[in-house]
Amino acid sequence: MQKVIVEKKRYVDSVSLMGISDKVLTLAGVSNVEAMMATPANQALLKELSYTLPEDVTSNDLVIAVTADTEEICGAAIEMVKNIIDRKDVDDYTSYNNLTEINLQEDPYDLCQISLPGEYAAAEAKKALHMGMDLFIFSDNVTIEEELELKQLGKSLGKLVMGPDAGVALLNGVALAAGSIIKDGPIGIVAASGSGAQEVGCIIEKCGLGVSNLIGTGGRDLYPQIGGITMIEGIKRMEADPNTKVIVLVSKLADLGVMDKVLDVADNCTKPVVVVFLGSNEKLFEGHKVHATFSLEACALKAVELAGGNVSNFGMNDEQIAALAKESVAKLDAGRKYFRGLYCGGTFTEEALQYFSAHNQGVQLNSNLSNRFCTKLADSEKSEGHAILDLGAEDFTAKAPHPVFDPSLRLARLRQELADEEVGVVLVDFITGPGVAADPITAFAKECAKHPEIVFISSICGSQEDPQNVAEKEKLLIEAGVIVVKSNYQSAKLASAMMNELDRR
Amino acid sequence: MAEKLRIVNLGISSFYDALVNQDCKVAQIDWHPPVKLSEELQEQLLKVTTGALAAKIDEANEAAADMVIQADPVWIDVKPAGEVIEGLDDYTVTHSGPPISFEDMVMLHQRGMVSACLFEGWAKTEEEALELIHSGKIKMISALDTNTVGAGTGIITKSVAMIIIKDRNNGKIAATFPAEGIVYQGGFCGWGLYSEGIAENLRHMKEYLLPPMAEVAKAKGGLPIKPILAESMVMGDENHTRQSAADLLFEHQITMDMMKLDMPRDQVMASMQYIVETPRFFHCFGQGASRAAMLGNVGREYSTVVTAVCGNGVEFGIKIAAMGDQWFTAPAPMMEGRYTSSKYTIDDQIPWCGDSCVVECAGLGGLAAAASPIVCNLRGMKLKDAIAQTREMEKICVKKNYNYPIPNMDFDFLPVGIDIRKVLQTGISPVIHGGMFNKEGGLIGAGMARIPMECFEKAMAAFVAKYEKEAV
């Protein structure tokens, strides 16, 4: 049977109409479909196909004509044509001004990632929690009171609140913010230190294992005001997660009471827990069951070992490092006597400073940071002696984007250091991931290649799955004469040995 | 591994890209800092967005937008302005923008008033004309208080020949003036200029160049305008600043009819030459079609849809459907864009002058940016920016107009019907496209402006005052 529908004064471009028939003919029982403007030629064509048109039809009218087995199928076919013309068949482009425009019942989302200016982040975060989403807040400048309110609210609603100031996370294989796409595996990480967690995860991957989930808590989670709400919630989630066999906790040194409380929770886990609280010592762990480690690398290797992985021959041993340091420094001109570390990872800077202060006793370590491991530079724009810079710290990021996202600031600083004739050894760290600079490495490799008179040390904190193609970039660095080691800790050990060699000359 | 995470990204757009590249389901929130609304405005908005009143407004706005979507504008004739424009009697002149006194007018309008007196023969010299104007005998009316559109300066007097557009959907008739050829272009009506040549050209148009067109319009039984707008829109026009495709489509539509006319060949040729040579000839048809549709919304109870937007070089004014012909004004904005020559600077420009943004009320021009990346490019925008402009406009409009599927938006439809509630809530002001005027007269560039928020705030206050009793 046949059915004809006329939409008066409805203009649709003939090219758009031509695509419709094929789609509708896929309906079973439909033998012919025509959707056309009723021009004289088209009217003739429709009559030829034995359709009957109303008398008053004109070129400005749209005709939909269908031949099908039954009345019902005709109706369905016409409905389908209309839907295609009205674009109801496609996923409509949706743009939202506001979180609340999303209807989670119809269009579900699990998590809200917030990187708004800090003053606006908390209000939006609260909305997202009430809507029923977990939170990942990259924004900084959120007050500690707001953080506490959000985390308490999240806890009462059974939602995870990562951040504020969370740098990385890896959830169900999806890397957030500056995180790496570390491959799937049995080790779950909960971390209050973004780059620290990233380093642990990437070392695990280098050992052939992977990470189930990585939960970033934000840097202040272990402050006394917050009390480790998210880290404790994270530990519980890892304990409950069947894919996680070993749990890893990462933080910089924080509030002793809170760290102790977190360790109490960890003690109650049935799964082995490996902990690195950078800057802590054995004393903190007295009376706790967890595996205490004191560097990111040691933490990662312990976790790999507990998860049944192989950690032998990871990187260089102490003799190899000593030999390489001696050999490299011997080649330097006598006037080149200083080390410069140009870091983009905050935790990497800290890990290195801690190592140097323990292993380069009596050496003055200059830095833009001010802490017990170093002496603050008079002018952070100008290095003196052995200098270790955190280029992601506020004195630099106030003026330019963070070097993890935009390498230009650090590249300029590298050129400045290379122009200094007293510089002998330079260290640069790299961080990769889908959310950071598209190519953080090539420009540095090219710069290093121009300076065979200088010794370069580097490590790449990244996953083979990251879009930057880490293996290829590592090759570029090696071809440029850069010594690429497997972890930040090893680069610190090597730099430390070289500093000692330099000072001995 | 568990199912892939579905994420809403609120903030840095490169994080959105990173998630898309990981094949996640991601929604990006196009976040803007919250609009700082006065308490008064917050209260007003609450009244018009909740309860029974909101439902009535929604319904009225839907009908107002449908007035454009269902519109069926056809070009039916050419007639002298005095015969078709309401209230355009002897000694009456229209001007663009909201009402303004002669003293407060920009020089372009003041000169236009003098030009009008000279053209109509009400005065023989400029001095006489000024005397006449100061005597109060000349009635100066706002073009958008009638059924015409005052593009540019909008100087229209009874003897000017007008293009007549009838909307067969609502029965309204709008009249717009055609551009004055390749030589005079904006000339008398658009630029308010007067010379013997301009006057002669206007008479020549009326008596010689336009009659063949009138015959064609009649012979065709009216030429539908919407199909031309629709087709030109997929060919790169947004139909405010650019009519390149529409001009060709229009010429294509009338060529055969022109050739068939039983009129002197020289006259038909001259008429054809005038149509073909005149830049952006179709512009007045788009304005007429837009105005006719909007006339159907003037006085529509409960509707907060904008029916008129225009400037007079000093003030900018809008009207909204429910408030009939009441004006809501604010200082006119300066247009941003590019100049025709690098010799021009912002000091040469006057604030927004003209009514042609009536097309934006009907969803063309600034709202249709995605259709015409080339127009947006003159402001240094890329394709994605042009699309973003239309997407932004979507947020302040009532609905989508299925007549205009846009290739650059994967055939999604253009928005239509500017709702002042949404403008105030989102803080997004409508973008209007247009030409820039020199203080001395003449076009010196093209670009865009945003309508001052103050216009919308005033309109909202008046609307709430009118309907407050019905708010819960």
Question: Can you walk through the features of this model?
Answer:
The complex is a heterodimer of chains A (505) and B (472). Chain A folds into three domains: 2-85, TATA-Binding Protein (2-Layer Sandwich), CATH 3.30.310; 99-306, Rossmann fold, CATH 3.40.50.261; 318-504, Rossmann fold (3-Layer(aba) Sandwich). In chain A, 38% of the residues lie in helices and 20% in strands. Chain A has helices at 14-18, 20-24, 40-48, 71-85, 118-131, 144-157, 194-206, 229-240, 256-267, 282-285, 296-306, 318-330, 346-359, 394-397, 408-418, 442-449, 470-479, 488-504, and strands at 2-7, 30-37, 62-68, 111-114, 134-137, 161-162, 168-171, 174-177, 187-191, 211-216, 246-252, 273-278, 291-293, 338-343, 365-367, 375-376, 386-390, 423-431, 455-461, 482-485. Chain B is globular. Chain B folds into three domains: 1-30, no CATH class; 39-69 and 298-470, v583 fold (Alpha-Beta Complex); 73-289, Enterococcus faecalis V583 domain (Enterococcus faecalis V583 fold, Alpha-Beta Complex), CATH 3.90.1710. In chain B, strand 1 (6-10), helix 1 (13-21) and strand 2 (25-28) form a beta-alpha-beta unit. Chain B contains 18 helices and 17 strands. In chain B, the strands form six sheets. In chain B, strands 7-6-3-8 form a four-stranded antiparallel sheet. The N and C termini of chain B lie far apart (52 Å). The chains are: A alpha/beta (505), B alpha+beta (472). Chains A and B meet through strand 4, helix 5 and strand 8 of A and strand 1, helix 1, strand 2, helix 10 and strand 14 of B.
Core attributes:
heterodimer; A: 505 residues; alpha/beta; TATA-Binding Protein; Rossmann fold; 7-stranded parallel β-sheet; 5-stranded parallel β-sheet; 20 strands; B: 472 residues; v583 fold; 4-stranded antiparallel β-sheet; 18 helices; 41% helix
Could you write a compact summary of the structure shown?
By secondary structure, chain A is α/β, with parallel strands linked by helices.
Task: Describe the secondary-structure layout.
The complex is a heterodimer of chains A (505) and B (472).
Chain A (H helix, E strand, L loop, with lengths): L1 E6 L6 H5 L1 H5 L5 E8 L2 H9 L13 E7 L2 H15 L25 E4 L3 H14 L2 E4 L6 H14 L3 E2 L5 E4 L2 E4 L9 E5 L2 H13 L4 E6 L12 H12 L5 E7 L3 H12 L5 E6 L3 H4 L5 E3 L2 H11 L11 H13 L7 E6 L2 H14 L5 E3 L7 E2 L9 E5 L3 H4 L10 H11 L4 E9 L10 H8 L5 E7 L8 H10 L2 E4 L2 H17 L1
Parallel strand pairs in A: 4-5, 5-6, 9-10, 9-11, 11-12, 12-13, 14-17, 14-18, 15-16, 15-17, 18-19, 19-20
Antiparallel strand pairs in A: 1-3, 2-3, 7-8
Helix pairs in contact in A: 5-6, 7-11, 12-18, 13-18, 16-17
Chain B lengths: L5 E5 L2 H9 L3 E4 L10 H11 L1 H19 L3 E8 H4 L7 E4 L11 H13 L6 H9 L4 E4 L18 E7 L5 E4 L4 H4 L2 H5 L4 H24 L3 E2 L1 H8 L10 H17 L4 H13 L5 H13 L10 E7 L2 E6 L7 E4 L4 E4 L13 E2 L3 H4 L11 H5 L5 H12 L2 E10 L5 E7 L1 H7 L4 E7 L5 E8 L2 H15 L5
Parallel strand pairs in B: 1-2, 4-5
Antiparallel strand pairs in B: 3-6, 3-8, 6-7, 9-10, 9-13, 10-11, 12-17, 14-15, 16-17
